[in-house]
Amino acid sequence: MIIGLTGGIGSGKTAAANRFAAEHGIHVVDADLKSRVVVEPGKPALSYIVDRFGDAILLDDGNLNRAALRERVFAEPQERQWLEQLLHPLIREEIMTDLQSARSPYALLVSPLLVESGQNTLTKRIIVVDVPEAMQLARTVQRDAVPEAQVRAIMQAQAQREERLRHAHDVLTNDSDLAALHAQVDALHQRYLKLLESQA
Q: Which keywords label this protein (predicted)?
């Protein structure tokens, strides 16, 4: 069983996923990490990106300057669409390969664009990490040290909170502390084990 885990930027997806992995031994596949793998130096996607945006999109060591790229694509919607069409199929391939190697009772696919990218078609259930938008904004500005306007642009590109919640089978409310989030994760894990038992 593959369970999707999603939430807006700064919602606490990573904290939730880490708890599933560290405490319960669940195999976690992170779509964001896969999106980095497909643009590593030497990968075809990186040369396409350089052809389109120029060498200024690279760091001195030849790696992709993700901050510069993010600035470009969130300022121009058609550039973001071009980038998504290039990367989404490649990322999906990486995700599939990783998921097939899972040995835990179920696997977790963590993706900020789970619904928007169609990755939710790979999953049986969807967990949404939910947090008030003001908190999301404040956490991200503080964590990434980026301007509020840039965070707002990213939030606009992601599914709106209501839209995400509409797809949710399970919701983790992350408006308190880490202990509260962990307790919710632990309870969900037990529920999934029971669900798997009943399906066996």
A: ATP-binding, Coenzyme A biosynthesis, Cytoplasm, Kinase, Nucleotide-binding, Transferase
Q: Report the chain's terminal Cα–Cα distance, integer Å.
A: 11
Give the domains, in start order, of the chain with CATH numbers: 2-199 (3.40.50.300)
The annotation places the binding site at: 10-15
pLDDT digits (tens, 9 = 90+) for 89-111: 999 999 999 999 999 999 999 99
108 three-state secondary structure: strand
Question: pLDDT above 70 covers what percent of the chain?
Answer: 100
Considering Cα of 153, then 13, then 193, then 162, what sign does the dihedral take? negative
How many angstroms separate the Cα of 114 from the Cα of each of 42, 75, 167? Answer: 27, 22, 10
d(CA 153, CA 176): 25
Six-digit token string for 121: 């078609």
Residue set of the binding site for ATP: 10-15
CA 71/CA 27 separation, integer angstroms: 32
- What pTM does this model have? 0.84
Give 182's contacts (C-beta < 8 A, 6+ positions apart): 19, 23
